[in-house]
Amino acid sequence: MSSDSRILVLPPFDATASFKYTESPNPQWKLGDGMPLNSPQARQWKEDEKLGWKTWDMDEMPKPARYKLLTSAVGPRPIAFVSTLSADGIPNLAPFSYFSMVAHDPPIVSISFSLPPNSPKDTRENIRITKEFTVNLISEPWIEAANACAVDAPLEIDEWVVSGLTKEPSDVVKPPRVKESAVSLECELFHFQDICPPGSDLVTNTLVLGLIKKAHIRNAVLAQGGNSVDPEKLRPVARFGGQTYARLGDGFELPRPAWKNVESIVHGLMGEPNGHSSS
Ligand SMILES: Cc1cc2nc3c(=O)[nH]c(=O)nc-3n(C[C@H](O)[C@H](O)[C@H](O)COP(=O)(O)O)c2cc1C
User: Fold this and answer.
1) Parallel, antiparallel, or unpaired: how do β-strands 205-217 and 183-195 relate?
2) Pocket test for ligand 1, best of 99, 121, 138 (most atoms within 8 A of CB)
3) Cα–Cα distance between 156 and 32 in angstroms, integer?
4) What is the 147 CA–ligand 1 centroid distance (Å)?
């Protein structure tokens, strides 16, 4: 089925659906329980083991097949919507989902550029030369505008015009941030690492680490207390494989186990004399 024919039968986007907290999948779970078979979905998950696994050897896969497989398997990925300026001051805006937070001390994000032969990404080039960029996180109400910026337009085309989004001056870097974005990070280049396949000197990717100098968060998406972001209000959009985007479903909280509270249970599970079982 082509993506066009699929679009014809899809229900409209439900803008009213929003994130809410639920219980975790197995609230009665105890240390050592593994995967409880207490729902039809969990039992099916167990049943599916009988289908076995399909395994790919990365070295034997054509590049497009590897891209298709890995981008659909490793997700959902957050998307950095990156604003840069060329050496001549020409603005550029593009989305990148090989993106993550790397550290908070120092505060660092990573972006990775895939570089098809003879097709350097303008964003990469701008960061290399100017050493500055802003990362803007994308929310549901303006995802189409962000997606349009992935157009393979010539260098002189300004993606801001293509998107219709609004420039907001940054505080400490020259590239503007996106006014429609609820979370914008002003970044300075921290590290620029070209990547070549083993045994080759052809640069196929570049990993950029950005040091966050300023974080701008819309007041309207802040959680109670004003020191963190409320996922229900943020309405973030993530990337899967192909042309697929994902929105946030429900959330649940799970406390991280503290060793002092679980130590004797774990020893019990290991069959040691001073332990006791968790039930
Ligand atoms: C949602 C989305 C995520 C993308 N992620 C990446 C990525 O992580 N790395 C990359 O090199 N290109 C990625 N692309 C493609 C770039 O956005 C595209 O090549 C763009 O034209 C680059 O713009 P530039 O040349 O102005 O930098 C992505 C495209 C979309 C729509």
Assistant:
1) antiparallel
2) 121
3) 59
4) 9
Amino acid (1-letter code) at residue 61: M
What's the token pair of residue 29? 């779970």
* Residue 51 banded pLDDT, cuts 50, 70, 90: very high
Please state, in angstroms and rounded to a whole number, the distance separating the CA atoms of residues 146 and 166: 12
SS3 category, 15: coil
Interior angle at CA 130, CA 145 and CA 181, nearest 5: 25
How is residue 193 written in tokens? Answer: 């690492």
Q: If you measure from the C-alpha of residue 52 to the centroid of ligand 1, how many angstroms do you get, rounded to a whole number?
A: 34
Residue pointed to by tokens 């300026």: 85
Q: Do you know the residue count of the chain? A: 279
Amino acid at 206: T
Domain extent listing, the chain:
70-251
Six-digit token string for 170? 């940054």
Is the domain spanning 70-251 CATH 1.10.3810.10? The answer is: no
pLDDT by residue (tens digit) across 149-208? 999 888 788 999 999 999 999 999 999 999 999 999 999 999 999 999 999 999 999 999
- Tokens representing 7? 């679009």
